[in-house]
Amino acid sequence: MKAEIISVGSSLLKGLVENKNAAFIARELTSVGINVTQAVMIDNSNEKLLETIEKAEQQADVLVFTGGLGPDEDDIVKITLSEHLDKPLVLDDDTQNRIITYHKNSDLIMPKNNQLQALTLLDSIPLVNVTGLALGMFYQSDTHTYILLPGPTDELKPMFTEKAWPLIIEHLLNGQVVSTKLVRLFGLTMAQAQRNLGDILVSDDTTFIEIFPAGLEIEVQITARGFDADEVHQFIAKAESEIEKSVAPYIIGHGDQNLPNIVRKLLKEKELKITGAESLTGGAFLSELSSLFEAGLFFDGGMVTYDESIKKEVLGVDEEVIETHGVVSAECAFEMAEKALEAFGADLAVSLTGAAGPSSLEGEIPGTVWIGVAVKEKSTFAKKFHFGYKRNQNREYSVWSAFNLIRQVLLDEEIESIIYKEKVKKDE
């Protein structure tokens, strides 16, 4: 089975909006053996859209549209498809009522063409927009399947996952059992992941194991489909076991939750408070913490101590430590973490200090970073990292590495190559 993705919107062609929708849809369809032969972007032109539809029908069985479902005059996908298929548009009353209620409650002026968002092809299956207003649709003719989705990604993804996906399984995959598992990795590059997992990766009509970049993390997606549920689940379990054998030290979790959210869940479950003292990252770690859902349950505050004088005068880092060991040191990381722990009355604290780049600092090359962790009634430790020469990338990796250290501490995992404060004092 072949599919084509048609993304509609002049903002895409002007480079104002990145087309993340096509990548998401292609990944989901490919994972169940629906081959995406082409993904195109076009402007809001009736003639261009009609031409694109006619060409797509010649080479694909499934046409997926993104965008062009709004209330504006240039949102022409539904109208153009209706004319092309000679199929009338009808009003979905539930969606129309939601649109009216939304504008009443928000005191917004309702657009003249608001009904465009509530129209659907006759005999199609409406796809309710759970985060927006524009209605999507799933329609099958004698020869093709047409799936219409909104342009905003935060509307498209839930609509696809919650509304379109079950219909794809039922109507296009004949009700087969479909199972998917995500394994999340951090701490290795895509090339390294490809090398370590090369013998495991597979992609065919019924089984799919592939790796995808997910920010600084990597997702390993395992998908299987078939009519025998036991066989499907056995494949998933076997594949997951093989992945764990190959990249066990880099597995941070399962599912779609990234490192900060994994830490958020652990902190909430254990009812612990966290804080931080940052130097080279300039508040990026604390910002990420505060952006998490229910952050107030586990985070009261932290401190940015970019300048050496602030470390000493505000945070209270021992001046002798900085004079003797410098700020790019385990000793400074120890002090920063412990002082933050004390100042904010938290259960654990993280410190980040180092040479972000592009220049060296205290004789340390760019990308040299120390991350310290202080935990109530436990030994303070620090770990040294060597990233690269790109300043902001070093800062991003530092933040994610800090979250990973917290995750390991909260799960009582063994952490390699760390230095304990007591050991340093003893050696001195």
Automatic annotation (TrEMBL):
Gene3D superfamilies: CinA-like (3.90.950.20), MoaB/Mog-like domain (3.40.980.10). InterPro entries: CinA, CinA-like_C, CinA_C, CinA_KH, Competence-induced_CinA, MoaB/Mog-like_dom_sf, MoaB/Mog_dom. SMART domains: MoCF_biosynth (SM00852). Pfam families: CinA, CinA_KH, MoCF_biosynth. Residues 4-171 form the MoaB/Mog domain. Transmembrane segments: none annotated. It comes from the Bacteria. Belongs to the CinA family. This is Putative competence-damage inducible protein.
